[in-house]
TrEMBL record:
Entries under InterPro entries matching the protein: Ig-like_fold, Ig_E-set, IPT_dom
PROSITE patterns attached to this UniProt entry: PROKAR_LIPOPROTEIN
One family name in Pfam for this protein: TIG
Source organism of this protein record: Reichenbachiella agarivorans
Name recorded for this polypeptide: IPT/TIG domain-containing protein
Length: 423
């Protein structure tokens, strides 16, 4: 009996020791901020910060500026916006670490500019940008990032400025001074990118015959499946489906898809093949997340169910960056629901304005990690669909063979570095 009691006591002591050891080794959890309410306000306003593990907070900051803590619990903190706060994230510090708000807090200064929109989402150095909002008339200084912009014109509701030389490529905020104070925009609620565009000689705009011959002068049409393959003005009499233009000419590819002949690959249009290294300076050391394939594109009429299909092979076309030296294609195959999931929608005439980051381009076993800017020689678009049957090699496919009309029209195909051209 004594032996049993000793054994139980020993187990209890061991358990207690292990438990104490585990408690001692348990780190204090890092606070997690899930929301701030409201997401904008003036210095002196109280803001409610919601999250977990926020008890015993040692500090709350608004974009790095310390705030006064009014109340504090594990799941909710009320803090006062400090006088010299600027737009940015709200951070909560405890013994466990630092938690950062998912959204930025926009500081509103009474009498200072309030920016409601920026047009457009991106611009190159030297372009004009219009800020729309309140109290714009007395704007005396505008910085894009850290670089002063030139003020072109102000009204009560707008300020037009020119992007200054030396502006940093990529996402930037605006710092605007007027008689009422200083306002800094949020890059989350009002994103703006300083970008550079590939040389104009390689733009696919199709409004200048000489330039178009240099730019999109490559690619071709599958003889079995293509019935129209040229700029819109040249195929207006033969195309079965020619959409309304966005502006001027566009390139149009049309034909009857037959997956039995070409695996749904019908026509393509590329920039002319260039010498390796031509684009090296343009790409520089940019990350693939900062390189965008921008295009305005119309996919025409689609069979029932194609727009809602979740089958990855039910693609609308094929965007390509080609390295001919290594015989590698880096490709992106958009689907209707995939584009919608990214927030894109077509306009009333069926045109999509797309900016796809190069990080989304892959091809088979290749990954974008293989991307070698020095070897890029051309980029383009292929008319590719996953529908249509029948047809005989060497004979043009028709609807009677089971072919289904597939069209791709595109305009303003331009590669950018630093950000997208379109939202």
């Amino acid at each position: 009996m004594k032996r049993a009691m000793l054994l139980v006591a020993s187990i209890a002591l061991t358990t207690l020791a292990v438990s104490c050891s585990e408690d001692k080794d348990d780190p204090t959890p890092i606070p997690v901020v899930t929301a701030i309410n409201p997401t904008s306000g003036e210095p002196g306003d109280n803001v409610t910060i919601t999250g977990v593990d926020m008890d015993a907070a040692t500090s709350v900051t608004f974009n790095g500026v310390a705030a006064t803590i009014v109340s504090n619990s594990a799941t909710e903190i009320v803090a006062t916006v400090p006088e010299d706060a600027t737009t940015g994230k709200v951070s909560v510090t405890t013994a466990g670490g630092v938690g950062v708000s998912p959204d930025e807090f926009t500081v509103v200064i009474a009498g200072a500019v309030q920016v409601e929109s920026i047009s457009s989402i991106s611009a190159v150095v030297g372009d004009n940008i219009t800020l729309t909002g309140i109290d714009m008339m007395t704007v005396s200084s505008v910085k894009i990032g850290a670089v002063e912009a030139t003020i072109v014109e102000t009204t009560e509701t707008t300020a037009t400025v020119t992007v200054g030389e030396g502006s940093m490529l990529g996402l930037n905020n605006f710092t605007i001074v007027n008689n009422g104070g200083t306002t800094t925009t949020s890059t989350e609620t009002l994103p703006f990118y300083v970008i550079k565009k590939i040389d104009e000689a390689f733009w696919g705009t199709f409004d200048n015959p000489e330039a178009d011959a240099r730019a999109f002068g490559g690619g071709g049409a599958d003889p079995e499946e293509s019935t129209a393959h040229d700029i819109s003005s040249a195929v207006v009499d033969i195309a079965e489906y020619l959409p309304t233009a966005i502006d001027g000419n566009f390139f149009h590819m049309e034909g009857y898809s037959s997956t039995t002949i070409s695996g749904s690959y019908m026509t393509q249009r590329f920039t002319g093949s260039q010498t390796a290294g031509v684009f090296t300076d343009f790409f520089g050391d940019a990350s693939v997340d900062d390189i965008y394939f921008n295009v305005q594109i119309n996919f025409g009429n689609l069979p029932d169910g194609y727009k809602t299909s979740e089958i990855p092979e039910d693609v609308l076309c094929d965007f390509r960056i080609r390295d001919i030296v290594n015989n590698d294609d880096f490709e992106y195959y958009p689907t209707w629901i995939g584009l919608e999931a990214m927030g894109y929608t077509p306009d009333e005439n069926g045109w999509w304005s797309l900016s796809i980051p190069l990080s989304m381009f892959v091809d088979g076993s290749l990954t974008i990690d293989n991307f070698d800017a020095e070897q890029v020689q051309r980029f383009g678009i292929a008319n590719r669909r996953n529908y249509g049957t029948g047809g005989t090699a060497g004979v043009t496919v028709t609807a009677a063979d089971g072919g289904v009309l597939a069209t791709t029209s595109f305009d303003n195909a331009i590669i950018t570095v630093g950000g997208p051209m379109y939202k």
